[in-house]
Structures are given as structure tokens and as C-alpha cells.
Amino acid sequence: MYLKALELNGFKSFAEKTVIDFTNGITSIVGPNGSGKSNILDAILWVLGEQSYKSIRAKDSSDVIFSGGKNRKAKSVAEVSLIIDNSDRYLDIDFTDLKITRRIYRSGENEYLINNRKIRLKDINNLFMDTGIGKQAYSIIGQGRVEKIISSTPKELKELIEEAAGVKRAKTEKEESVKKLNDIQSEVEKIEYVENDLA
Ligand code: ATP
What we know:
Blueprint: E1 2-9, E2 18-21, H1 37-47, E3 77-85, E4 97-105, E5 110-114, E6 117-119, H2 121-128, H3 145-150, H4 154-165, H5 168-198
The site of adenosine-5'-triphosphate has 14 residues, from helix 1.
């Protein structure tokens, strides 16, 4: 599995459709201050489902939509897509080529898509869980992240290690099952209460 390309359209400083191809090996992005290098990393985090606008250096949802320039009108929608080669089926989905898209409108409405079909944010989270690629994973180390990792609390560090070790999915599934069991238990108690009342 590898990231083949990133498409941005209306996201932050990328007013028009911009495609960044990642060929094999190392890709460096260079440019003057303020030219949009960090916006590219923000776009990757955002398409992976980042919900904290602070983490991608924005005030709110509309702040990621191109706000207009000298000769350009503001955009009403921002869209970012990750193009992934999944021929080794590293991601547990039966597609060789994957296009993961997130779109946001000025109204604040978000849309997530896989290969142009609408999906839920939960599906994105599940797809990337334990792969090291998700929004909180260790594959994206932005400015200040190393210092943040070094000064993490033991709990935060444990979460990072769990993601790297691939146990986060099992932990999440266990938590969901425990919640379901508790819900069922309280339903059973309600039924018993009614039964006792009728007896
Ligand atoms: P540095 O090298 O200083 O870290 P950089 O190349 O990483 O800079 P970024 O921080 O990615 O630059 O980009 C900042 C630019 O993005 C600023 O010029 C800012 O005005 C622009 N920008 C951010 N959000 C928007 C938006 N919603 N609409 C238009 N431009 C935006």
C-alpha cells in the first residue's frame, strides 16, 4: 500500500484543483514561507477524518475553504482526496485503487467518500485503524509533534504504542461489545421489573 497522489480543490490556499503525485522513494516539498507546504499536511490529516480544527491550524470548518485572493473569489466548497495503491490489500477493503475523499460546504456539512460513494466517518476510522495511517497515527509528524510525543502523558504514550502494535482495533471492538452488553443488561432489568409488576 502506498500513497500515490493527493488532490486538493478549494482547500485553504489551494483555490484550484491541484494534484501532487508521490512517486516511489522520498518526496520533498519545498517552497517559500507561507506558500502552503504545511497546508498539504493539514489536508492529509483532514481527509483522514480530523475533527479538531485547531490540529490543522484552522479556527473553524469554514476556515479550511479557500477564502479568496487578489483576483479570485472565495470558494463555497473544499475537497481533498487521497489516492492510494492498495494492491497488496494492506487496507482491509477489496479495492486495488482507493480514492478517499472529504468534502465540506460553507454550511459546515461534511461528506466522506470512498471511490466516489458516500460513506460514514466511522468507516474511514475503521479502515485506517491499526494501520498507522489514521489521523492520530505516527505516520504524520507535523511541526511540534516530536516535542508533544516526548512530553506525552503515560496514557497518551500507551495509545500511540497500541496503534503501532495494532491492538487498537481489538480494544475498540471490545469497548463497543461491552457497551452493547451493558445496554442489553439494562433492557433485561427493565423487562424483569415489568414482569415482577405483572406477577
Ligand atoms: P512556512 O514555511 O512559513 O511554515 P508554509 O509553506 O508551510 O509556510 P502554510 O502555513 O501551509 O505555509 O500556508 C499558509 C498560507 O495559507 C497563508 O498564506 C494563508 O493565508 C493561506 N491560507 C490558509 N488558509 C487559507 C484559506 N482558507 N484561504 C486562503 N488562503 C489560506
